[in-house]
Amino acid sequence: MISLISIGLLSGLFFSTTFILNRMMSLEGGHWLWSASLRYAFMIIILTSLISLFKGFDTIKGLGKLFFNNWIFWTLTGTIGFGGFYSLICFSADHSPGWIIAATWQLTIIASLVVLVGFGRSFPKKVWLFSIIIFIGVLMVNMSHAQMSSFKELFMGGLPVLIAAFCYPIGNQLVWEANNGNPSLPRIDDPLVKNPFHKVLLLSWGSVPFWLILVAIIKPQLPSADQIFNTFLVAIFSGVIATSLFLMARNKSSKPSELAAVDATQSSEVIFAIIGEILILNAPLPNSLAIAGICLVFIGLALFIRFQEIEKKS
Predict the structure, then answer these.
(1) How many Cβ atoms are within 10 Å of 248's Cβ, its own excluded?
(2) Contact at 8 Å (CB) between 42 and 235?
């Protein structure tokens, strides 16, 4: 268990670099659109190279065929799940510190429940109670930021993350529904989609039209060499290393309690983001309201994961 938690915490550390580096690029004047779009450009290059290396180029050809056979579906899901999600996360970095975005991002747990309900699932009342605790904690974190900024900054920093928290599970759930025979969606039951890295590549391809249209509309100033390099680091640290470590820890788990512990480690992103911004960006320490809010988020996450563990055992 200690080994699994250590790997999970290490993945949380690498995931937190997304929030820190996005904030750094924003403070240095880099346009949020390049921070978002270049990450997926690098992800496509990196994943295509790795999959070709370890699975062979025939796998890439199979994925290409799968994509073009259902290009409308993959463009829709990639636009929502990756394009909408990450463009909003990067946009919010212009208005809020990374640790606040990381804390607010924990709302994706609640958003995932709402999305699942929209697809006909139901949950015990306790789950919603735990979600309310998380929501109150996130609200307190954002209220602490409101004490140091204007309402406009709070609105522009918080609302995009809230919308992004819904975009991500919607995109992923649409893929799951299509893979499990939802009659209102195209049937996608190819075993290639079972591999999480294959799915990430397919969704990344699907997001390309979104990025191209956004760049054509906004016409941002060209990125600097530093922004390109930092975006590459985000793709490596978060997209490859963090994801690989997290999946490794989950695959090594043999009990529900171990899976729950690994999932719980991802809340460490908030702590790592705070430490990183203080050390690298000289950000001020969170005030007492923010610390209380973060504690509530952790309590809600712990209760939520503990309940999942009990449910799996029963």
Answers:
(1) 16
(2) yes
Q: CB under 8 Å to 236, separation ≥6 — which residues? A: 42, 46
Q: Is 56 exposed, middle or buried (0-12, 13-18, 19+ CB in 10 A)?
A: exposed
> Mind listing the pLDDT tens digit for each residue in 225-249?
999 999 999 999 998 899 888 878 8
Give the DSSP letter of residue 28. Answer: T
- Tell me the pLDDT band of 128, cut-offs 50, 70 and 90: confident
Q: How high is the pLDDT of residue 256?
A: 59
How far apart CA 153 and CA 118 sit, in angstroms, is 31
3-state secondary structure of 120: coil
Q: 76 or 95: whose pLDDT is higher?
A: 76
Q: Is 262 exposed, middle or buried (0-12, 13-18, 19+ CB in 10 A)?
A: buried
Average pLDDT, the chain: 87
Q: At what angle do helices 98-105 and 288-313 cross, to 10 degrees?
A: 30
Per-residue tokens: 173: 């759930």
The single-letter DSSP state of residue 31 is -
**Boundaries of domain holding 154:** 2-313
- Under DSSP, the state recorded for 241 is I
pTM: 0.87
Number of domains composing the chain: 1
What was the pLDDT predicted at 79?
97
Backbone torsion region of residue 29, taken as left when φ is above 0, otherwise alpha when ψ lies between -120 and 50, otherwise beta? left
Integer angstrom CA distances of residue 286 from 150, 219, 277: 17, 36, 11
CA distance 293 to 103: 9
- What is the crossing angle of helices 151-179 and 85-92, to 10°? 160
Amino acid 38: pLDDT: 96
